[in-house]
Amino acid sequence: MGRLSDFQSTRTSGMSQEEELKQKYDSLKDMNKDQLNSELMREVARQKSSGSFDYNTLSNMVESLRGSLPQSDYENIKRILESLR
């Protein structure tokens, strides 16, 4: 499985953004909550150590998804996001 950060806003892989999102979703969809949290923490640690972690971009992305998420999921994501600061 690739890293969460493998998703890029510029298309260099020849895949459309939709195809890339579907591929990333497919790689994560069968993980349980603990596995997803573990993957997230590994990725955040990797980004922080390389200096590429961008809290504001991540926060803006979460806010843009707010309308499409159940309130409980949104609140859980916000709680996790706050713990990453």
Give descriptors for this structure.
globular, 85 residues, mainly alpha, 64% helix
3D architecture notes:
The protein has 85 residues and is mostly helical. Helix content is 64%, strand content 0%. Helix 3 (55-65) packs antiparallel against helix 4 (71-83). The radius of gyration is 13 Å and the shape is globular. The protein starts with 16 loop residues before the first helix and ends with a helix.
Present the secondary structure layout.
Blueprint: H1 17-28, H2 33-50, H3 55-65, H4 71-83
Helix pairs in contact: 3-4
Q: Which structural class is indicated by helix and strand composition?
A: mainly alpha
The coarse overall form would be globular
Beta strands, count: 0
Low-confidence stretches: none
| Largest sheet composition | none
Number of helical segments with 4 or more residues: 4
Radius of gyration: 13 Å
As a percent range, the share of helical residues equals 55-70%
The share of residues in extended strands comes to under 5%
Please trace the helix and strand order, writing H or E for each element.
Answer: HHHH
* Span between termini: 26 Å
Mean pLDDT, to the nearest integer, reads: 80
